[in-house]
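JOB MANIFEST
job_type = single_chain_structure
chain_count = 1
residues = 233
[input]
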Amino acid sequence: MAIQSTLPQQNPGFVRKTFSAIAGRYDIANHLLSGGFDFLWRAKAAYLVAATRPTRILDLATGSGDLARALASANPEAEIVGADFCLPMLEVARGKNVPALIQADGLNLPFRDGTFDALTVAFGLRNMASWEGALREMNRVLRPGGFLLVMDFSMPPAAPIRSAYRLYLHNVLPRFAAAITGNKEAYEYLGTSIESFPRDEQMFSLLQRCGYHGMAQHRLCLGIASIYTGIKA
């Protein structure tokens, strides 16, 4: 049985409405709220993908296209396709000249089996209604031996840092984000979704059930975010 989100807000309508509302301020909010570390995180992800020498890459939940651009820079010979189900976010990406963009649902991708050598999903899997269903769909469009990279927020493993981060996540960040984007609800949801998202061994177990092996984890900024990688079995 596919894992479904337990969050009442986390449904396609809510997610599309939320990201549509903040699309125009999404990038500036990301840069400010991460202290600029999001640039380094995307560079790390692009480097890991480049090491596999892919020729076709799907950046799922591409959003405003920043990771697609980092992937293109690190993989100049590869074809990069960016997919997202939120049209206003794709319009922001189009304004950055991301070349190949498609509106698509992560649970029902419009690609043939085995189309891509590598697939990335950054800060997007957490917002999908079925994490397992989405990972299985990603597996379908990857070729055998294809490379998966999942990057998302996490919870720091060290208790003192985790406690301080929770205080920031649930009390400081929503107010700061509301001042930037005018949408406090979106960032109240962010904290709740991060707390419930699988991490560490939970994520490894989920990836294994969905047809991946050779998993690895790269913690970012003391575990505030993590990159998980796997190979299609």
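[summary]
The chain has nine helices and seven strands.
Residues 12-232 form a domain with the Rossmann fold fold (CATH 3.40.50.150).
exit_status = 0
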